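R.M. (postdoc): so does anyone remember the format we settled on? I'll just put the structure tokens first.
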């Protein structure tokens, strides 16, 4: 039987629910839920918004202060899940095994992010309700802040992420 973990995400622009897939991405889901259980995502920004591509968050507090994270995890991109619209994937650097707390929500079917392309980006969940909130976040105006581009001009942030 496929286990699913449900999470509620409360943001400054509304709420959405996600389901996580521990059978397909056990290390990634364990890592993410540990951050959730420690309230790591409270008042954490969606700091990268690129319409038609992704919204990314999980690494910066309001004010663009980077949060300290746990050690990186192994890339589970070869799990059969695809970077389709509204799926969650782990953000990483060019080092395949560098993901920590940052994740992104796909705003389109981004096949070029799927394994084996450039090592792939590990899909580990999907937005199952509140897609309209994701679409609203995707529409915010962005600017360049402290070396980061595509940063919302007005903070868009997670108030909290909790288990359902």
């Amino acid at each position: 039987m496929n286990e699913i973990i449900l999470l509620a995400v409360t943001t400054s622009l509304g709420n959405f629910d996600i389901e996580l897939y521990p059978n397909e991405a056990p290390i990634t889901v364990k890592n993410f839920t540990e951050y959730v259980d420690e309230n790591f995502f409270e008042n954490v920004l969606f700091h990268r918004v690129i319409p038609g591509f992704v919204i990314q968050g999980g690494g910066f507090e309001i004010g663009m202060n980077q949060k300290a994270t746990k050690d990186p995890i192994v890339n589970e991109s070869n799990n059969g899940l695809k970077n389709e619209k509204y799926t969650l994937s782990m953000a990483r650097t060019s080092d395949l095994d560098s993901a920590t707390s940052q994740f992104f929500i796909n705003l389109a079917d981004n096949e070029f992010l799927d394994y084996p392309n450039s090592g792939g980006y590990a899909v580990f969940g999907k937005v199952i309700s509140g897609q309209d909130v994701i679409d609203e976040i995707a529409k915010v105006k962005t600017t360049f802040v402290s070396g980061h581009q595509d940063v919302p001009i007005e903070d868009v942030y997670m108030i909290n992420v909790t288990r359902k």
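R.M.: ...and that's the designed sequence above, right after the tokens. Also worth knowing: The chain is about 10% helix and 40% strand. The mean pLDDT is 97.
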